[in-house]
């Protein structure tokens, strides 16, 4: 709509909003609309007619031009055949030929020489590139003429033939030199596969010459090499595109192709050449790929636009077949498209100019005719605008009779303004009172909402803290009893097993495996009791913290956890780029990282990867610590399990205790750090630990501060 308004303003000098708001402009628009639609329809009909019918006529013309070119090329071969027939029937030839056949044993050399001289003169006269007399034996030995011998049947035969440079040289060394064409890379065509083309395309005729007995022992072999032969293409061009058949500056061209190579053409290398010499012709250039595929590969005619050398042409292409019926080239006829487009656009501009002039004249006449009728409406509009701006004025009496509809409208509008003014005063007073009450109620509601939010947050934090304290209290009491009841028996069992092993001596080897299993299980019991004590009474296990570099600690973890990683057959990827120093307790951080590494290894069922990353923790452009990531390609953690993984005794492993992540969280919390967990089922899990340069006071943190859950992205 904004573009339409801008265009309308530039054309008519008024904005679209003015057009909609003023009656005179609306009447002007409604009056001009039929005229505009009619003129635009005429323009579009003209454009459609030009595009459809003129385009069809151009394609029909080029199709007819192509037919003329094909027929002319066929006539060249027929004329060539007629020329050889005329030569064989001439008195001079028959006289010399009778002398040639006078001797039954050996051909007469003088007669052969006389025939060759006669044929050389005829060759120059008829404009042929070669003309010679050849015996049946020589023709049968020539692979190029052997096929023509089978098709002559005592009659002349003509056709196209492609010969290599060597075979051309056997006929005439000048033909081999004339056939050599240097190839030129061409836009919209494939790159040349060789630097030059040495083959030649011949229009060849083989005429049998019979003696008086009707036996054929000799043939007349003649023809033209089409490579660089400009006579044929210029003749077709002058025949098809005579002066006055094309628009000014349009070029009509004809081309003969050997495969996809222009070997004879009057297509200029430059647009509008000053001369048409062979040096300025596009010989050696290539046809576009799409034309090549349709005409030479598929064998279909091309009647359409085509890119010829350096511009678009209305083009017609037809395949050329040699004497074997094989497609060996193309014949082309066409003319440049640009002049037609220029004339087409010029016609559209002329029609558009006429449209604008007629529209302006019609608008001016309508506007002048309606202006005197619309002055009262204009005055009413001015009063309405003034009232909207705040002025207290009325329309009053217009210079119209009382029966006039506009006069009645103005009177009704004045009464409406009076009523509106009284009601506006009442509404303004009520609105002021309502605004005061709304402001009071809103302020009270905001205060109560803020207080409620603070109470809810406090209640939530208190409930979490109470739950945690209850768990710790119950766990402390339970662990105290377990430690008292289990530590002494486990010590006795461990001591007796060592004594039993010592007393049995060599006899202990029979049950050595069972003894070691008992010792290991007792050690596991001791480890579980120690973990429980550490979780329930973390204050007793607090160790001093020191400033440490993270990378050496992670390297040590990878060595300690190497057995578990290798056992699970997973690939370990290290990305250790952290440079900052953080305050931690080295043994406790080792315990946390080993636990995360072992969990990651156990989470991978089949061969997978584990990434260990360290990098500086940057916020607001400043480094505040270091972050450690442990990522795996494991089974992932469901949303229900994700919120419980740090609860004591919660585990999804059959042989797990459920204390590893709880202890790890407690250690990181005492350092004032953060733990983030992101996981997606069947994709993997990422644990991210954040440690500050200066360890924060854990007492100032809430029960789950620094703990975040989310999906792995």
From TrEMBL:
Annotated GO MF terms: kinase activity
Superkingdom as given in the UniProt entry: Bacteria
Provide an example Pfam family for this protein.
Answer: HAMP
Residues of the Histidine kinase domain:
481-695
Entry's EC annotation: 2.7.13.3
InterPro entries according to UniProt = HAMP_dom, HATPase_C_sf, HATPase_dom, His_kinase_dom, HisK_dim/P_dom, HisK_dim/P_sf, sCache_3, Sensor-like_sf
The residues that cross the membrane are 27-49
Q: How does it sit in the membrane?
A: Multi-pass membrane protein
Is rRNA-binding there in the keyword field? no
Q: Which residues form a coiled coil?
A: 406-455
Which SUPFAM superfamilies has this protein been placed in? ATPase domain of HSP90 chaperone/DNA topoisomerase II/histidine kinase, Homodimeric domain of signal transducing histidine kinase, Sensory domain-like
The residues covered by the HAMP domain are: 371-425
Q: Which reaction does it catalyse?
A: ATP + protein L-histidine = ADP + protein N-phospho-L-histidine
Q: What compartments host this protein?
A: Cell membrane
Keywords linked to the UniProt accession: Cell membrane, Coiled coil, Kinase, Membrane, Phosphoprotein, Transferase, Transmembrane, Transmembrane helix
Q: Tell me what this protein is called.
A: histidine kinase
Q: Which organism is it from?
A: Shewanella litoralis
């Amino acid at each position: 709509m904004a573009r339409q308004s801008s265009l309308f303003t530039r054309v008519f000098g008024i904005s679209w909003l003015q057009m909609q708001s003023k009656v005179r402009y609306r009447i002007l628009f409604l009056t001009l609309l039929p005229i505009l639609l009619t003129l635009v329809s005429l323009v579009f009909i003209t454009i459609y007619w030009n595009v459809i019918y003129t385009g069809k006529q151009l394609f029909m013309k080029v199709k007819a031009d192509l037919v003329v070119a094909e027929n002319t090329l066929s006539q060249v071969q027929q004329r060539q055949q007629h020329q050889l027939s005329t030569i064989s029937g001439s008195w001079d030839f028959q006289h010399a030929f009778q002398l040639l056949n006078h001797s039954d044993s050996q051909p007469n050399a003088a007669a052969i020489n006389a025939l060759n001289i006669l044929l050389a003169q005829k060759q120059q006269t008829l404009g042929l590139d070669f003309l010679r007399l050849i015996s049946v034996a020589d023709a049968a030995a020539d692979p190029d003429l052997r096929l023509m011998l089978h098709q002559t049947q005592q009659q002349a035969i003509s056709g196209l033939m492609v010969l290599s440079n060597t075979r051309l040289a056997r006929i005439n060394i000048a033909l081999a030199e004339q056939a050599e064409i240097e190839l030129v890379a061409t836009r919209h065509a494939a790159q040349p596969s060789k630097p030059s083309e040495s083959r030649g395309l011949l229009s060849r005729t083989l005429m049998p010459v019979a003696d008086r007995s009707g036996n054929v022992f000799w043939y007349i072999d003649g023809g033209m090499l089409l490579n660089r032969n400009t006579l044929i293409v210029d003749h077709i061009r002058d025949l098809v595109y005579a002066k006055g058949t094309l628009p000014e500056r349009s070029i009509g061209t004809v081309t003969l192709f050997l495969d996809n190579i222009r070997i004879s053409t009057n297509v200029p290398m430059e647009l509008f050449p000053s001369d048409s010499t062979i040096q300025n012709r596009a010989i050696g250039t290539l046809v576009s790929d799409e034309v090549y595929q349709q005409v030479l590969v598929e064998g279909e005619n091309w009647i359409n636009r085509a890119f010829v050398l350096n511009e678009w042409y209305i083009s017609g292409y037809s395949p050329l077949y040699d004497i074997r019926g094989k497609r060996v080239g193309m014949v082309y006829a066409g003319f440049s498209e640009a002049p037609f487009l220029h004339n087409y656009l010029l016609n559209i501009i002329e029609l558009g100019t006429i449209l604008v002039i007629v529209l302006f004249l019609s608008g001016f006449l309508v506007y002048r005719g309606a202006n005197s009728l619309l002055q009262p409406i204009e005055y009413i509009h001015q009063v309405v605008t003034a009232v909207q701006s705040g002025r207290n004025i009325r329309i009053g009496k217009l210079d119209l009779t009382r029966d006039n509809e506009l006069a009645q409208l103005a009177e009704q509008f004045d009464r409406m303004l009076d009523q509106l003014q009284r009601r506006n005063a009442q509404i303004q007073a009520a609105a002021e009172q309502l605004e005061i009450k709304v402001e009071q109620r809103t302020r009270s509601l905001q205060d109560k909402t803020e207080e409620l939010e603070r109470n809810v947050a406090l209640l939530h934090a208190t409930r979490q803290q109470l739950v945690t304290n209850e768990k710790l209290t119950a766990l402390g009491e339970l662990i105290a009893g377990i430690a008292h009841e289990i530590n002494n028996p486990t010590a006795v069992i461990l001591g007796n097993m060592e004594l039993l092993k010592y007393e049995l001596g060599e006899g202990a080897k029979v049950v050595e495996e069972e003894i070691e299993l008992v010792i290991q299980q007792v050690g596991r019991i001791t480890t579980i009791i120690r973990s429980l004590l550490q979780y329930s009474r973390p204050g007793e296990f607090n160790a001093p913290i020191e400033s440490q570099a993270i990378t050496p600690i992670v390297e040590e973890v990878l060595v300690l956890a190497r057995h578990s990683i290798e056992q699970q057959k997973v690939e370990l990827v290290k990305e250790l780029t952290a440079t900052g120093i953080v305050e931690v307790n080295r043994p406790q951080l080792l315990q946390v990282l080993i636990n995360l590494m072992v969990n990651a290894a156990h989470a991978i069922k089949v061969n997978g990867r584990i990434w260990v990353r360290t990098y500086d923790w940057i916020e607001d452009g400043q480094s505040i610590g270091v972050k450690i990531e442990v990522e795996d390609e494991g089974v992932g953690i469901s949303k229900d399990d994700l919120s419980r993984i740090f609860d004591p005794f919660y585990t999804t492993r059959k042989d797990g205790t459920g204390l590893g992540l709880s202890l790890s969280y407690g250690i990181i919390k005492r350092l004032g750090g953060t733990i983030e967990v992101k996981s997606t089922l069947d994709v993997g899990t990422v644990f991210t630990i954040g440690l500050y340069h200066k360890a924060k006071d854990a007492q100032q943190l809430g029960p789950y501060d620094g703990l975040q859950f989310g999906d792995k992205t």
